[in-house]
Amino acid sequence: MNRKFILINIILILLIIAVYIFEYYIENYPMMFNLINSIKECRIEYLAVILSVTALVSYLISSLDIKGLSFKTKFLRILPMVNFPVLAFFAYLSINGWAEKQRKVSAIENRYSQQAAEDIKNDLVTIQFGGGFPLLLHDHATLNKIDGIRKRYGVRYMNTGCVIDGFETTGQEKYSEIVYPHLTRRNGKGWEDRMQKEIDHIEKNSHP
């Protein structure tokens, strides 16, 4: 019988640890999930303190005389009852946090989808990228020529700087999913290579 409760306690504790780490991931969503980094950064020592407290509470309750059961038997039966609310609490935080993040992602994707439709209608889409602080390597005349080539292909590029927000990145990816097929239909396959060759030719003959 004790083996059964030992197994229940092990499974419950492992579930608590898993949900605790997942709840940390939800807080930082939509970052890429990395188990090692999540374990390092989720302050697992706080969970260790919580589990120590539940073990202490179970120990104190097990010290009481209950149906003549041995201390070990009482402890193994009481510990999961004390730990279950902890699991339920972290599970609630995870589910609630996930729902909130998904609502935010949906709102951002809808905004970028609407923007993509409008830009396609105006025949000029904007591709955003994070490239740090832009360096002016060419004179204004050359930059204007490069912009003219891009506009002829129905596209312009915007440097969003060094700081990249995860939600905005998700929105930009949604935007790209919509506009790139349009650009291919508009310009034909391999349009980016052709455009870049024209830009390279301009840059080669420019005077910085």
Low-confidence stretches: none
Structural class: mainly alpha
Q: What is the string of helix and strand elements?
A: HHHHEHEHH
Helical fraction equals: over 70%
Terminal CA distance = 82 Å
Mean pLDDT: 89
Order of strands in the sheet with the most strands? 1-2
Tell how many strands the DSSP assignment holds: 2
Task: Tell me the β content.
Answer: under 5%
User: What gyration radius follows from the Cα positions, in whole Å?
Assistant: 28 Å
The biggest beta sheet is recorded as: 2 strands, parallel
Overall geometric form = rod-shaped
Number of helices: 7
At a glance:
The protein has helices spanning 2-28, 35-41, 44-62, 71-121, 140-152, 166-187, 191-204, and strands spanning 125-129, 155-159. With 208 residues, it is mainly alpha-helical. Helix 4 (71-121) runs parallel beside helix 6.
Description of the molecule:
This protein is mainly alpha-helical. Helix content is 74%, strand content 5%. The chain has seven helices and two strands; from the N terminus they run ααααβαβαα. Strands 1-2 form a two-stranded parallel ribbon. β1 (125-129), α5 (140-152) and β2 form a beta-alpha-beta unit. α3 (44-62) runs antiparallel to α4 and α4 (71-121) packs parallel to α6 (166-187). The longest helix has 51 residues, at 71-121. The mean pLDDT is 89.
Topology overview:
Blueprint: H1 2-28, H2 35-41, H3 44-62, H4 71-121, E1 125-129, H5 140-152, E2 155-159, H6 166-187, H7 191-204
Parallel strand pairs: 1-2
Helix pairs in contact: 1-4, 3-4, 4-6, 5-7
